[in-house]
């Protein structure tokens, strides 16, 4: 059966029934897991309503998301036996719209000597003739990290429910100075004008992070190139690298193998618990990647997200002509809490990603499809937010919401002077939390708040002056997010590249029981936080706008919606691998 793309429909029984019919047609039974969402109302207040997560157990990196024959596929690192890391396999879920999901049979699990001790991260590539392929890291009999290939057993199956491993595995091995413990996570491959495939693998050699480059004519026999695509003496191991083009002239996405001259290339590497990226010019003739700025250069700190967000992966969505970013959001409570919950890890809301108008950074925004979950809207305009005021946003489900707000600053001359030593935004936010009064700021939102504000997660801005320029600081303060003591309540921060003289300061926050994904300055800075309120749960959670600065600000517009649950379905005969 060949599926074709249809515009996203409203969430309904139609979606679930339609996908169940497809599953039955391919030999599976399905059952709704809406009951797992209902655990929120009993003993699972932190389980999300519209973020992707499996019904139970540990999940980490997204692996090779892709679009194939009308279906979106998400593969991810998964432990089928518990809520802690270990026994890692590739789990597999499918969707028509990136919002509602069906969990189907696991795609890849240990069966060969080249992956017998684990099937770790990797990527998907669509080969000529619409042939999907997976390159992934296996842990072999010597506990060495090696790179393997798998292909679908039946390409006519749009769900790609069965995968066959190459008899030539492993295709790439850690030789010639490569540390076998620091060699993993192959990217989506790209094809040059010479029809030769390229792929990079993350590594660390001589203490330096490195993207090892390989070439292949047939996607099976790979040759290592002497020079890496890129390396850095200021970083160590690069995990989950990603390399892809972005358009300099259009808001559309670009295919990974595109030869369009109006592009820049992005190299992303995961290290130091964050996903950093750099921009540059790539010439496939000699595989030269000339960067504009390097990782960890003084004054440059380009990240996808300045909070909890790691091991991300992008893919080109041909159906909607966009590039989409997924990221793993890990927990901020303890391992014993995870075991008690029975699960650990979320995926971010899928984000579109493109080059900013300035060409100096990327911007991100939640995919449009997530808006179909909105209902019960509240909005107001031109509301003065006086110094020291707190304004409730009533009438919505504050524990599961989507809120957009735009702030107008009538008195920019009141901004305090930026000390030249204040170069670290996270440190600055940690020192100037939401409770610390300033001049222009802090102002923003209080999510997961109790009525008396005993618990609150503050997402806010402060404005500073530096010579004749204005600096916008965005913070996410978790210090009062819960009365529980044993949690990671790190405060996060980022500077936003914008001029508040010429545009309002905007914030969008996706709130979902234990996660807040915030997008400042129309997606120029993103901060994701995990929080575990003890009091501000269910109907006891409130949402407020606030201004703790000495200067008044104005809310030019605020829109807030309650969010429905996403539909989650699992196949009843889902196989459990024998490890």
TrEMBL record:
Q: Name one Pfam family in it.
A: Glyco_hydro_32N
- PROSITE patterns membership: GLYCOSYL_HYDROL_F32 (PS00609)
- Is Signal tagged as a keyword? yes
Q: Which UniProt keywords apply?
A: Glycosidase, Hydrolase, Signal, Vacuole
An example molecular function term from Gene Ontology annotations: beta-fructofuranosidase activity
Q: What is its main location?
A: other
Positions of the Glycosyl hydrolase family 32 C-terminal domain: 369-562
Q: Mind listing the GO biological process terms from this record?
A: carbohydrate metabolic process
Record-annotated Glycosyl hydrolase family 32 N-terminal domain positions: 51-366
Signal sequence segment: 1-30
Question: Reaction catalysed by this chain?
Answer: Hydrolysis of terminal non-reducing beta-D-fructofuranoside residues in beta-D-fructofuranosides
Where does the UniProt annotation locate this protein?
Answer: Vacuole
Family statement drawn from the similarity comment of this UniProt entry = Belongs to the glycosyl hydrolase 32 family.
Q: Would you tell me the protein name for this molecule?
A: CELL WALL INVERTASE 1
Name the species this protein comes from: Salix viminalis
**Highest classification ranks of the organism:** Eukaryota, Viridiplantae, Streptophyta, Embryophyta, Tracheophyta
């Amino acid at each position: 059966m060949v599926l074709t793309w249809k515009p996203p429909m409203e969430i309904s029984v139609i979606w679930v029934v339609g996908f169940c019919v497809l599953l039955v047609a391919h030999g599976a039974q399905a059952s709704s897991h809406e009951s797992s969402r209902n655990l929120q109302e009993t003993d699972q207040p932190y389980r999300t309503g519209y973020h992707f997560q499996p019904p139970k157990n540990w999940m980490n990196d997204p692996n090779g998301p892709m679009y194939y024959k009308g279906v979106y596929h998400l593969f991810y690192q998964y432990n089928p036996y518990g809520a802690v890391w270990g026994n890692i396999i590739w789990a597999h879920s499918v969707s028509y719209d990136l919002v509602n999901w069906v969990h189907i049979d696991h795609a890849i699990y240990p069966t060969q000597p080249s992956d017998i001790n684990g099937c770790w991260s990797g990527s998907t590539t669509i080969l000529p003739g619409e042939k999907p392929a997976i390159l992934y890291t296996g842990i072999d009999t010597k506990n060495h990290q090696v790179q393997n290939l798998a292909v679908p057993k039946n390409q006519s199956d749009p769900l790609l429910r069965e995968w066959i491993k190459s008899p030539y595995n492993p295709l790439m091995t850690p030789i010639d100075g490569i540390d076998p413990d620091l060699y993993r996570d192959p990217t989506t491959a790209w094809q040059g004008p010479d029809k030769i495939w390229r792929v990079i693998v993350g590594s660390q050699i001589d203490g330096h992070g490195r993207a090892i480059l390989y070439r292949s004519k047939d996607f099976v026999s790979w040759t290592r190139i002497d020079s890496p695509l890129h390396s850095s003496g200021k970083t160590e191991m690069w995990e989950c690298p990603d390399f892809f083009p972005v358009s300099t002239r259009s808001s559309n996405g670009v295919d990974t193998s595109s030869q369009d001259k109006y592009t820049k290339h992005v190299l992303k590497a995961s290290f130091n618990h964050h996903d950093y990226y750099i921009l540059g010019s790539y010439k496939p003739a000699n595989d030269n990647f000339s960067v504009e700025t390097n990782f960890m250069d003084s004054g440059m700190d380009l990240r996808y997200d300045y909070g909890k967000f790691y091991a991300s992966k992008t893919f080109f969505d041909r159906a909607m002509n966009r590039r989409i970013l997924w990221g793993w959001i890990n927990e901020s409570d303890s391992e014993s809490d995870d075991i008690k919950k029975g699960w650990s890890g979320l995926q971010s809301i899928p984000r579109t990603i493109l080059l900013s108008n300035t060409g100096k950074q990327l911007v991100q925004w939640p995919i449009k499809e997530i808006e179909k979950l909105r209902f019960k809207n509240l909005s107001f305009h031109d509301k003065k937010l006086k110094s020291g005021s707190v304004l409730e946003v009533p009438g919505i489900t504050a524990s599961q919401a989507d809120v957009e707000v735009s702030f107008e600053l009538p008195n920019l001359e009141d901004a305090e002077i930026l000390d030249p030593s204040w170069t670290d935004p996270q440190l600055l936010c940690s020192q100037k939390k939401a409770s610390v009064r300033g001049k222009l700021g802090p102002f923003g939102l209080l999510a997961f708040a109790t009525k008396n504000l005993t618990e609150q997660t503050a997402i806010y801005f402060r404005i500073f002056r530096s010579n004749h320029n204005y600096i916008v600081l965005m913070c996410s303060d978790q210090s009062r997010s819960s009365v529980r003591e044993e949690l990671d309540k790190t405060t996060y921060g980022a500077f936003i590249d914008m001029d508040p003289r010429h545009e309002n300061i905007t914030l969008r926050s996706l709130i979902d029981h234990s996660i807040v994904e915030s997008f400042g300055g129309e997606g120029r800075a993103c901060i994701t936080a995990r929080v575990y309120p003890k009091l501000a749960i269910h109907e006891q959670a409130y949402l407020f706008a606030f201004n703790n600065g000495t200067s008044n600000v104005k809310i030019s517009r605020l829109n807030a919606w309650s969010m429905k649950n996403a539909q989650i379905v699992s196949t009843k005969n889902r196989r459990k691998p024998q490890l």
